[in-house]
Input
Amino acid sequence: MNIDLLLAAPEGKTLEFKRDLSSPKPILKTLVAFSNTAGGRLIIGVRDDGQVVGVEDPLEEEERLCNLIADLIAPRLVPNVEMVTINGKTLLIAEVFLSNSRPHFLRSEGPETGVFVRLGSTNRQADRELVAELHRSAEGIAFDELTMPGLTAADLDLKAAADAFRGRRELDEKALLTLKLLRLDQGGLVPTKGAILLFGKDRIAHFPDAWVQCGRFIGTDKSDIFDHIELYDPLPQTVESIMLFLKKHAMRGADLSGIRRKDVWSIPLSILREAVINALVHADYSQRGAPIRIAFFDDRIEVENPGILLPGLTIEDMKQGVSKIRNPVIARVFRELDLVEQWGSGVRRMFREAEEQNLPAPEIVEIGMHVRFIARLPAPIPVALPAPLGPKTAQSGAQSGAQSNEILRALAHEPFSANELVALLGLKTKTGAFKRSVNELLEADLIEYTIPGKPNSRLQKYRLTENGRKVLKKPAKE
Output
């Protein structure tokens, strides 16, 4: 232990300074929070401004601290307490490790209200759901592996599941058991919580907050929203739905000249995709009160999921590639669908890609009872507000031309299906104007089918032709 490095570090998830033992309750809360979260060191004899003042009677204060811990914290907590002298002043250092007996609590407040966890440099009282999560994690039980008695396989949308796995494996009874989508319970097959979260027919009835809220805000705060959607798709499908929302607003906010300069998106899609998958896989679906949220601002995109980091895990650990899986059933399905490549590599890859692309380093913060991933944009993308509509006689033609341009701009990046283009354009259905625009672009040889021989194939997409690319490269008319 390098005491100089500790004293130079800011207070955080695993470090706190205290002047003395005159107010023992905050000290005990910190030790409880350390033991329930990721361990940590409490250094006594340091003022709030970082100045070392020492402890006047180290032996007496050490005994007092140990007695307070033994008398006022349950279950029994035994930290390492040692004395360190620096510049002639003695400090008390109490080191607590992540406890296998968690959750610990203050005896005076009881096991229901006396449990605390560490968030950043603060201690937060754990609610009932988090207390249950601490119990499960200590026992090695995953929330999404628990069964849901009273439900059967009929409560799963097996068609959606089969569609997701098409070409990978047949979802027979054996496969459903292997993936832990079904488990044997009291002589019958019962879906797990993970199965309902992934493919439940009525998921929201069982998990009211297991949906995703996406918003595009004007400016850099949430005071003025421009567009939003609520997603209730099966979780694997949700990944693409979120990415389409982000692409739609990146495309609408992008300068067309930027597309001509470089055929890339104006937001870091690969990094954001990893962040979205991370949020869906690692959200604490036992928590109540908030869905997963995607917020697109002019200068950044935030991906936020409910639940603090798993006990024993810190943000620095994540950056180093350390991984703990909160939802193994969901993670296994995402892995089988190639949405997750390798455990523990996603966060490290996001930071590496940001560095390789000369982008601002992503940020990961614990805020409230949530984990928030922040991707700063390489350049601001203001919302392109629509101009006032002209006379109705000109409106139809103007909208048609604008829609054709939006289709071309979208396909400048990658091929899209008709349904994906509808989502990108912010439409609810394939309108007559949309169909006319597509047909006109096909007839003008500006776009083409990716599967020319099968126009009605479910895998059919549209892509730009060489003529279409030339049109995009033409200078805009004054």
Remarks:
- Residues 54 and 239 are 53 Å apart (CA to CA).
- DSSP finds 19 helices and 18 strands in the chain.
- The longest strand covers residues 89-96.
